[in-house]
Amino acid sequence: MIQELLDSLKNKYHYDDNLLKAIEITVNLMIKRYGSDSIDDIFELFNNIPIFTAVGLNQKMVNDKMSEMFGVNNPHILVDEEENIYGTNSVGSVCCYDPIFNEDMEVVSESKFIIVEDRKGTIKEKDYIDTFGTTINIPYFLHEVNHAYGMQKSKHVKRGNQILSKHGLYTSITDITKSEDKYHIQTTSGKDIVFEEIINQMITQDMLCDFFKVSSYDEVKPILNSINYVPMEYDSLLVFIGRELEFAMGIDAIMDLRRENNEAIIDEINNIASSSDIAIEFLNGEKPFDFFINKTYELFQLIVNKYKYKIEKYAELSAELMLDSLAPVYAYADKKNNTVDLEKYKQKREKVMSPYNNPERKID
To answer: Which strands sit side by side in the sheet containing 182-189, from one edge to the other?
Structure first.
């Protein structure tokens, strides 16, 4: 069955054996993760999303490919670039998606593609082949394909001169203006983009554990370090928060929100968590889901800019933001599962923050 898919992709897109091996690895891991009921969706994803490879992949190459693809589909539109929140790290792979607009500036479809780094010709080419059986950057490829799977049923709603979009767990707003005979669009991602990244990276780490047949991602890290893998900007604290959320909600509910756009789940989180004493004391009157999104975004921004802080100050700030991010999660768990209460949460805060509460400790 998988071989039939690979043969079809080779005929349709003319992929080489190197990329086909990466796809084979990824499809097997996805079926194991998402279940046999997901096979049709997984096959549809690979059939409909072209994949490009590049040696020495960098942000300019990604931007050029995005401009090329967008221009083909939307010749009547100029794109004003969004600010890059990810920093300047090397690019291992990117999943790109461009809305296709009609003349009335309504989204009628979406063009998607994935571009991934090929380590062919690099000093670590043999190490990648020995590790994965291909020179494709598998950890990043898995991450981006999982984004594509989570965003397979994207949603767009036009309201006046704005388009509200939902891709997986994150939302964005596209502003539309017109100058002479051209439309201009500018898209701003919501802070919930970090929520999508947390869950996506958590799933990717699980898949890498399956690939290497180990029980913990801590066992995967030294293997990746040995091949000079450049990790993503995702601190273990963010993935830990994802694990706690998965434990409280269950992965099925998270995936229902992510893939099926069941936004009633957000209402459920708010309704259940807001009655907890944890929420009453620590969420400052915010809706639990909004508080979670805001705090995880703050934590991500802190991680990206950690070089600006002294080590101990960064540790203190990141610990506090982690605990803040967990407050709505534990508030939900308090009322849904009776696994955490206000006293336990306070004890956790005290234990984590106690090293930083010494009055004689002075750190700028």
So the answer is: 77-80, 182-189, 170-179, 162-167, 155-159
- For strand 162-167 and strand 155-159, is the pairing parallel, antiparallel, or unpaired? antiparallel
pLDDT < 70: residue spans in the chain? 70-90, 231-234, 359-364
d(CA 198, CA 208): 15
pLDDT (tens digit per residue) in 182-203: 788 888 889 999 999 999 999 9
The two tokens of residue 10 are 């080779």
Tokens 């300019």 belong to: 60
Mean pLDDT across the chain: 90
3-state helix, strand, coil in the chain (%, to 5): 55, 15, 25
Yes or no: say if 96 and 114 are a contact pair by the CB < 8 Å rule. Answer: yes
What residue type is assigned to position 247 of the chain? F
Query: How far is Cα 106 from Cα 108, in angstroms, rounded to an integer?
Result: 6
Phi then psi for residue 2, to 5 deg, are: -65, -35
Tokens of 155: 């949603």
36, 44, 89, 319 from 39: Cα distances, Å: 5, 8, 33, 40
Report pTM.
0.91
CA distances from 33 to 161, 181, 222 (A): 40, 48, 23
- Is the distance from CB of 277 to CB of 342 less than 8 angstroms? yes
Measured CA distances, 135 to 53, 58, 171, 244, 345 (Å):
10, 17, 34, 34, 46
Per residue in 204-249, pLDDT tens? 999 999 999 999 999 999 999 888 777 665 678 999 999 999 999 9
Give me the percent of the chain exceeding a pLDDT of 90.
71
List Cβ neighbours of 299 (8 Å cut-off, separation of 6 or more): 194, 235, 237, 238, 241, 318, 321, 322, 325
> What angle (nearest 5°) sits at the alpha carbon of residue 279, between those of residues 192 and 337?
90
CA 337 to chain centre: 27
Which residues, in sequence order, are CB contacts of 232 under 8 Å at separation 6+?
A: 89, 92, 140, 143, 201
Whats the size of the chain, residue-wise?
364
